[in-house]
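Sharing a chain and its predicted structure for anyone who wants a worked example. Both blocks are below, sequence first, tokens second.
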Amino acid sequence: MGGYRQRRFAHSAAIRLMQTIQTLVAELTSGDDHRAEAAVHALKAHGPAAVAALNSLTTSEDADTRWWALRTLAEIPDIEVGDYLILGLEDADIAVQQCAALGLRQRPDEYAIPELIALLDHQDRLLTRLCADALIALGEKATQSLISVLDHGSQSARLEAVRALATIGDRNSISALFKVSEEDSQILQYWAGVGLDNMGIGMSFFKP
């Protein structure tokens, strides 16, 4: 009988949890930002149990719903979250893309590198900045991809790439940063100099 009672209790607890999460999801999609933000933190407390309920929201026809789903998922430490955020980078709505990039800055995922690199050339400058910040959060894992942008990317993408490399401070980027420091662009020179100085190199190391 003891085992039966335990199973029944566990089943009841699972039902209560599901009901609680569904109630919070309703608050998340209420259209009221204050209620939605409160629901974010409450859903975060339920951890991975909330991920499945948020899954369907990421493909909603409503962009605001997708935004709040990704906003919440970024708060949950679960291995599946990165996949949803990466897919969010391809969303048709720019605000959802920005939310996904911000989430990947908070929860770095090296599998997002190709998508983040591609978006460094996006016309929306806030999105490119957030993508660069997400690459910075990955640290040395992003170095080679960022160096490739310096070699082959557009000028706007190269600006975000050199800023990211300067902030990461991976010594494998020293040669690439020195090369950029010799270009005509003052902003590229500035960030290359910041990166070299942060690594204790300094321009005098190369130019007596």
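Comments welcome. Residues 9-84 form one domain.
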